[in-house]
Amino acid sequence: LWSLEAAHTNTSDVFVFWLAAGATLKALFNQPRIKFSITSEITQQIMALFNGCYGQFFNNDFYFTAFILNPCYRMDDFLKKPSDEDQTANTGAPYPHAFMCVKNVLKGMLHGILQGVEDCPKQEHHWLFTILCLREIAQALIQQLGSSWHNEPPFNTRADVENPTKWWAGLASDTNSQVLAMLATHIFNVLVNSMPDKCTNSHITWFN
User: Fold this and answer.
1) Which one of 82, 87, 118, 147 is separated from 101 by 20 to 30 angstroms, measured CA to CA?
2) Which superkingdom, per the lineage (predicted)?
């Protein structure tokens, strides 16, 4: 759990942590000495607990979306290759199920933002809403997600991939990526732990 308490932990790291935990358990239970010392019933109980916690924590695809949008990771290295029949079914994109999961999360985020713009037009909003109408923004999201999914320019740049927030911020001014970049930076700016607050309060306490 210490890895999730790091000050620079981002939303994709949460999903990676669970993947690593699951892979570690699987490798552990496949070791011959473990197979002989732990019954299959206990192994199944442990995995059931792990899967139950996973289901409760990841009750939507938000963290999976962050994982997919992190330029550090390549989909081909992690996603299960679909069958030939499902390869581009109904989406025109590889890994169609994953594509729809990410698309639905981003559409839900955009819907919430657009609703806020409509409900509070006098408040200050993202600069994109001053140059594009709501329909143009929604259409741009679908187009840009498709380009990103196929690793097309400008999404194929490899600069600053170790910092996803910085990487997406670099695409915020490009008309071919600005809507998706807006949503991605929202995702990676989500605070996933309380370490910055703890550090700040520790300094305040020390000064007092």
Assistant:
1) 118
2) Eukaryota
Which CA distances in Å does 121 have to 47, 58, 92, 115, 179? 49, 33, 36, 10, 19
Domain count, the chain: 1
Structure tokens at 84: 């030939």
- Phi and psi for 83 in degrees, rounded to 5? -70, 165
Maximal C-alpha separation, the chain: 67
| Residue type at position 187 | I
The residue type found at 10 is: N
DSSP string, 97-114: HHHHHHHHHHHHHHHHHH
Q: CA–CA separation, 73 vs 107, rounded Å?
A: 22
Half-sphere exposure of 83 (CA within 13 A, CB side): 2
In a domain, 195, yes or no: no
Residue 202: inside a domain, yes or no?
Answer: no
- Grouping H, G, I as helix, E, B as strand and the rest as coil, residue 170 is coil
pTM recorded for the entire structure: 0.83
pLDDT digits (tens, 9 = 90+) for 113-157: 888 888 887 788 788 888 888 889 999 999 999 999 999 999 998
- 19-74 pLDDT, tens per residue? 999 999 988 888 887 666 788 888 899 999 999 988 888 889 999 999 999 999 98
